[in-house]
Amino acid sequence: MRPSKRQPDEMRAVSFERGVSKHAEGSCLVRFGDTHVLCTASLEEKVPAWLRNSGKGWITAEYGMLPRATGERTRREAASGKQSGRTLEIQRLVGRSLRAVVDLTALGELQITVDCDVLQADGGTRTAAITGGFVALYDCLAWMQARQMITIDRVLKDHVAAVSCGICEGVPVLDLDYAEDSAAGTDANFVMTGSGGIVEIQGTAEGAPFSEEEFQALLALARKGIARLIELQKMAVL
After folding, report:
1. Whether residue 127 has pLDDT greater than 90
2. Which residues are annotated binding-site positions for phosphate?
3. How far apart are CA 141 and CA 139, in angstroms?
4. How far is residue 161's CA from residue 193's CA, in Å, rounded to a whole number?
5. Where on this chain does phosphate bind (predicted)?
6. 3-class secondary structure for the chain?
7. Distances from the Cα of 74 to the Cαs of 37, 66, 70, 118, 225, in angstroms?
8. For the chain, first and last CA: distance in Å?
9. How does pLDDT run across 34-62, given as a tens digit for each residue?
10. If you placed Cys at 222, which of 19, 107, 190, 230 could pair as Cys (CB 3.0 to 4.6 Å)?
């Protein structure tokens, strides 16, 4: 039995609360169980220097964790003067995941920055950030469409979501919370689109290597979980 009493293929309760930021063009408070991430999407009428006059826009992301998002207070990275390697890796993952479903040429020379701030962490913060970040991005694009800046159907090619999976005590399980993530023999993060395309897979054996059969079991769980997440995304934005 999992610590949360869930079945191996059962996710935590997931919710999307839109429009939580007064000023951002798009915003979403996403909850994966006790992991809560505030995602805001901000439009800037400029692009990075290397994209100027290219006719293409850009989607980027930043990620951070509040000091008491975890059991003990962690020092703000701003206080140390630099971001950790983990933070940089996660925000690059979020940016890549969102760009995978956006036609940057149809966006035009505009940039959208998706900020993902972890309010409370209980495992799976990066997967929650990607999944909630998409909802915030969608709302930003809807804001732009209402002002005749873009057409969503041309800019947005698909939905994208992410979920974690792992092998705990020899059993493949879906959507790890912290208790499982910290003890899992194997843990992986899957990012996929609504049409089933794979954007990125991160998988690590913490002890013994995992087999191809175990990987296929994790992939099957991830497909089931992401299908559910995208269904919830569609319910949230329609």
Report:
1. yes
2. 86, 124-126
3. 5
4. 6
5. 86, 124-126
6. CCCCCCCCCCCCCEEEEECCCCCCCEEEEEEECCEEEEEEEEEECCCCHHHCCCCCCEEEEEEEECCCCCCCCCCCHHHHCCCCHHHHHHHHHHHHHHHCCECHHHHCCCEEEEEEEEEECCCCHHHHHHHHHHHHHHHHHHHHHHCCCCCHHHHECCCEEEEEEEEECCEEEECCCHHHHCCCCEEEEEEEECCCCEEEEEEEECCCCCCHHHHHHHHHHHHHHHHHHHHHHHHHHC
7. 17, 8, 8, 12, 31
8. 36
9. 999 999 999 999 999 999 999 999 999 99
10. 190
State residue 207 phi and psi, 5-degree precision.
-130, -105
Euclidean distance between CA atoms 172 and 161, whole angstroms: 20
Give the torsion through C-alpha atoms of 196, 64, 24, 18, to 10 deg: 50
Which residues does the annotation place in the binding site? 86, 124-126
238 pLDDT above the threshold of 90? no
